[in-house]
């Protein structure tokens, strides 16, 4: 039987099995590739002088609820619960543990929700500042994100890092930003020698209404993905996305342009673990043996 990519990564020590599908440790070599690739992202986008913000992997639960995420993606959300009981409750919890019973009933939801996408904490944060300056805003984000979709495909992790550039402004400003990054993304992937295609896409909206949202998203070309073949038994993996949100977040959070109009937003996202996996898949598990032009792009 052929050895899967995930098993090869475990055997090479690049990923570390935790016993939970989609939850992996990373070796120093794996982390170095991500660090080098992020430096390459900086070279492509740093000259635009974005405002860098780094949020933690948890966000304000009230902001999460206000975002509408649960209406569209309840199957992916993750919440943070904690023990909030008294001493008697603690005794009951310990008894459940000793008897091998479910002890999680003793937990209560906290004010923290696991961040589903790096940009979600940004919109209420910027809205609190007031209207955007003339020319809008540009932000550089990176965060661990959580999505509950356990899988043995290494590209479908439950906890992963997302790097984003987010543009806020007028429709013409944010659409120009997205088009520019679709061209930059093409050049960036060519530098690291990865095969790819760009295609229209949709988010995994949930339920019957979700099918309508998917169709609308595709018909309006609101989302494109840069796809790279990584998994042998599946289609190509989305490693970058180019998204136009129209005025959705502007209306949700009251984001306004300098002249008082509702701001539109767009973002480009990099799935950092997925890109690292694509590099190991196509160039080999030993970075020292990668093609010279790829090493030059990443290590200089």
Automatic annotation (TrEMBL):
The keyword Cell cycle does not apply. One of its GO terms (molecular function) is aminoacyl-tRNA ligase activity. CDD domains: Gly_His_Pro_Ser_Thr_tRS_core. Keywords: Aminoacyl-tRNA synthetase, Ligase. Gene3D superfamilies: Bira Bifunctional Protein, Domain 2 (3.30.930.10). This is Seryl-tRNA synthetase. It comes from Rhizobium rhizoryzae. The lineage of its organism: Bacteria, Pseudomonadati, Pseudomonadota, Alphaproteobacteria, Hyphomicrobiales.
């Amino acid at each position: 039987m052929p050895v899967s990519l995930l098993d090869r990564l475990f055997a090479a020590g690049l990923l570390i099995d935790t016993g939970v599908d989609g939850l992996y440790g990373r070796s120093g070599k794996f982390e170095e590739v991500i660090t080098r690739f992020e430096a390459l992202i900086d070279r492509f986008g740093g000259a635009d002088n974005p405002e860098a913000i780094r949020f933690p992997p948890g966000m304000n639960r009230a902001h999460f609820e206000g975002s509408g995420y649960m209406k569209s993606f309840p199957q992916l959300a993750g919440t943070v619960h904690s023990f909030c009981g008294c001493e008697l409750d603690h005794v009951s919890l310990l008894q459940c543990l000793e008897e091998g019973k479910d002890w999680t009933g003793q937990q209560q939801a906290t004010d923290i929700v696991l961040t589903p996408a790096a940009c979600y904490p940004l919109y209420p944060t910027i809205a609190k500042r007031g209207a955007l300056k003339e020319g809008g805003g540009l932000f550089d984000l990176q965060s661990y994100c959580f999505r509950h979709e356990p899988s043995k495909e290494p590209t479908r992790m439950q906890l992963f890092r997302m790097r984003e550039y987010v543009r806020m402004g007028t429709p013409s400003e944010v659409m120009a930003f997205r088009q520019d990054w679709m061209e930059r993304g093409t050049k960036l992937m060519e530098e690291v020698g990865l095969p790819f295609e760009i295609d229209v896409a949709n988010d995994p909206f949930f339920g019957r209404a979700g099918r309508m949202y998917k169709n609308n998203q595709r018909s309006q070309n609101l989302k494109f993905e840069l796809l790279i073949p990584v998994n042998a038994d599946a289609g190509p993996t989305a490693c970058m996305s180019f998204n136009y949100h129209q005025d959705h977040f502007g209306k949700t959070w009251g984001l306004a342009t300098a002249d008082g109009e509702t701001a539109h937003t767009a973002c480009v996202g990099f799935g950092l673990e997925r890109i690292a996996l694509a590099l190991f898949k196509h160039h080999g598990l030993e970075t020292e043996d990668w093609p010279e032009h790829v090493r030059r792009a990443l290590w200089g």
